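Example 5.3 — Alpha/beta fold hydrolase
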Amino acid sequence: MNFVLSVKKWAAAVAVAACACAVAAPAAEAAPADSTTCRDVKIPVALTHGGPQNSHIAGTYCTDAKGPGSVVQILIPGATYDRSYWDFPGFGGRYSYVKHASRAGQATLAIDPIGVGKSTLPVGWQVSSPSSAQAVHEVIRAMRNGRLGRSWDKVVLVGHSFGSLTAMLEAGTYNDVDGLLISGASHAPGPGGIAQIIGNVRPAVDDPATKGTTPDGDYTYLSVPNVRAGAFHAPGDSDPAVVKADEATRVAGTAGILATIPVFIPATFDIDVPVLIANGSADKVFCAQGDGGSLTDCANTQSLYRSERPFFPRAELSTYVLPGAGHSMNLALNNRAFFDRAVSWVDAI
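Solution (predicted structure tokens):
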């Protein structure tokens, strides 16, 4: 029994390492710009290919009233995240990717992954990399089919950390998107970053911040308190008030993804659309320069390209490194440089 619990605890930390932590934001704060309209939506999904659509994905859908644009970005947070990682509340909207994309006239759909937030919360073991990718695939199909009022010809998946792993698995499996933007992830997680959080994993019901937010008694829903400052933020490139807000609003994730995390790796060899990989140079979870012990070299754009190019033989690959930023790039003081690069890359697809 002790061995099983230890394995689950270690694997939970690996899953959390593929995330960084997001912040729960009320829907009322999702109004990025005067010309942008945002609304909460629910999209029916199945958790298995060909299965019944008896689950749903919840999200916030934002479009520019002045002009619909030509592309929609589907924003996927990592494990233990909800959609508000992409629209971080407060601070004058400085840390909101959604607001930035909206000002550039780009539509977004920020989602809660399956098992998170207001999406369906199955028992934890049903939440896996394949079921997460399957749910995102059905969201993409809904956007193509006009379920939310418009049929989108161009769909770009944008992920952070485990959300990026989900996006890579989805894109390589279903080949149904026009572009893939990966942030806070690489093919070589660093044991140093994992070690910083492994001792803090606990059942969600034992953490005051997450107790009552998950299926009652499901031990596979987990929380990891007191790790964000050390593991996900770079001291020289973060606002202590933002780090505090990030920690205070942590969200529970599941252990159901643990054994299936590596399945995304072979999928990237089949991705044949434009790909942008963006990491912070001080990322302690996925980059060597962040003292994480990763094999991924995030010293600069060229070194990141050399590290990741072998995994994307068919893709038109671009890379970007945000100097000094930690794992939670959206929350870095210089996040604007990353946001600018991201929206210009999406525009060019």
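Remark. Residues 11 and 258 are 5 Å apart (CA to CA).
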